[in-house]
Amino acid sequence: MLLLAGPRFLVRGTLRVVTATVQAVESLPRIAAALEDVRATLHHVERLTAYIAQEVPELVYQLEQLREADVSRESPRTG
Questions:
Q1: What is the 3-state secondary structure (H, E, C) of 10-45?
Q2: According to the lineage, what is the superkingdom (predicted)?
Q3: What is the pTM assigned to this prediction?
């Protein structure tokens, strides 16, 4: 009985390794699809940051113009 325990453990271990390998191979397409989604998302984020980088200077300029217009409309304080 003790002599048969070694081969049983070997067979069970081999089956576990084969099962894990098959599961890993079957999950590769899902991993590839997820990586493709991440790549597309990063590309979109890159495009958004480029757009923001182009628009921020114009936004700052417009805010400065509004601030100057607001300051010029205020009446001088008499004290």
A1: HHHHHHHHHHHHHHHHHHHHHHHHHHHHHHHHHHHH
A2: Bacteria
A3: 0.55
pLDDT tens per residue, range 43-69? 999 999 999 999 999 999 999 999 988
State the Cα–Cα distance between residues 13 and 21, nearest whole angstrom.
12
CA atoms of 55 and 63, how far apart (whole Å)? 12
Domain count, the chain: 1
Assigned domain for 58 exists: yes
Residue with tokens 């009446």: 75
- 1 within domain boundaries: no
Residue 33 covered by a domain: yes
